[in-house]
Predict the structure.
Amino acid sequence: MRKQLFFLFFLCTSLSWGQISFLTPYELELQSTLAYENLEDEANQLQFSLEAQQWPVQVLRYVLMRLQQNPFVTEEFYVNVRIFHPDRSRVIHIQVPVNKRYIEAFKTEEGFNSNYYDFLQDTYDWMMSRL
C-alpha cells in the first residue's frame, strides 16, 4: 500500500499541468497594425489583404501542431485567435472553429491533401466575417 501511494505521489509531482496538452486552451496570437487602420486607401487594402491571407495558414500550422500533441482529439474545438496591435493597446478576439471533418482529415496524409485548401478558405471567410 505504501509503495502504491509513493508511486502515485511521485507520478503526480513529476507531471506538470503544462504537459497535459488537452487541458491547455487553444490560443494563437497574431500581430497586425493594418487590422486597425483605415482601409480607404487601395495600398492599405492590398497590404491588409495579403496579411490576412497568411492568418489561416498560421491557424492551420497551429491546429496541426495541437493535433500532433494530442492525437486523441476527435470532437470539434475552437482556436481563440487574438490579433493585437504591436503596442498591445487594442486586441481583436476571434474564435475559429475546427470542424470534426477537418480533424479526421488531418490525421491522414491523403485526407490532409484533399482538405487543407477547404480549411484555409473556410478559416479565411470566418475570420473576415468576424473582423
